[in-house]
Every structure is written in structure tokens, then in C-alpha cells.
Amino acid sequence: MANTPLYSLQLNTREYFNYKTFCLFVTLKLITNYTKISILLMAKNILIIEDDAEILRVLETVLTFHDFEVTGLDRTDDIIAAVKNYNPDLVLTDYMLPGLNGGRICQLIKGNEDTRHIPVILISAYHEQAIALVNFGYDAFVPKPFDVNKLVKTINRFLN
Q1: How far apart are CA 45 and CA 122, in angstroms?
Q2: CA geometry: angle at 57 spanning 90 and 158, to 5°?
């Protein structure tokens, strides 16, 4: 029986049922593990809105290095459309921007039922105004100049 191919074995009903159940269990276990791995390997999407080209380039480079999918914009006049278009897991926005400022961007994201679940991190050189800016509803505030490692830790806090 050790060298007999499985398809030629004569299994009784109970043995056949146990064999099929075992195969189904193994298949489901493989699919479940594959799905968990796939979810873990999926890069998180970050939408950055920053009008300073140098800072935007640094943010894109650093976050891409840390395995995030990054989309950078230098401005937006319709943040809800941008969020729906890019489908970010997190928005990182400067406060001082042409058009909509970062505070208004935050208010619009947090005020929309479809987007309010998205974490928003506000970055600004105006850290003394951070307390006043809290009314915009951001999830975290990072002062400029920022420590890249602290910024990545802050982002990971919301995405993990």
C-alpha cells in the first residue's frame, strides 16, 4: 500500500470523507495564510500635499524607502476628489499651501463621511500655533523641521 498511488486506493466512505475533509482543511489553511501574507505585504498609500518641492522630494524618497506607496501633490483645490482618486491610507499635509490650506484640507477630510476614517497628519513650521490648529481635527501634528525617523514612527502608529 505504501507504493500504491492515492487515486487507486479503495477507501470506504468514512476514510474518503476524512481524506476530503483533510484536503479541504489544508486548502483553506493555505488560502488563509496566503491572504494574511498578501495583506501584510500590501504597501500602504500615503497622499502628501506639500508646496515646497525640496521637502516634497525628501518626503517621497524617505517614505518610498520605508515601503510606502506615495503620491505627492503641490496643491489641491478639491481634496475629496483627490482622496477618492488616490485612495490613500493616510494624508500628510503641510499647513501653509496655495489654494486650500492644510487646516481646511483636514476639516474637509474629517467632515466627509466617506473620508473621515483616514488619518491626517499636519506638518508645519508654525508649531507655536499647533494648539490653535487642533480645531482642524488632524490626527497628529509634526513640526518642521522634522526628524525623519519620528515622522515615520508617527505614520506607522496610524497604519499598523
Answers
A1: 16
A2: 20
pLDDT, one tens digit per residue, over 37-91 is: 444 456 799 999 999 999 999 999 999 999 899 999 998 889 999 999 999 999 9
Region for residue 67 given its phi and psi (left: phi exceeds 0; alpha: psi -120 to 50; beta: otherwise):
left
pTM score, whole prediction: 0.72
Cβ–Cβ under 8 Å, residues 123 and 59: no
Residues 6 or more apart whose Cβ sits within 8 Å of residue 23: none
The helix (H) or strand (E) run that includes residue 121 is: strand 120-124
- The grid coordinates of residue 90 equal 493616510
Helix (H, G, I), strand (E, B) or coil at 145: coil
Yes or no: say if 56 and 123 are a contact pair by the CB < 8 Å rule.
no
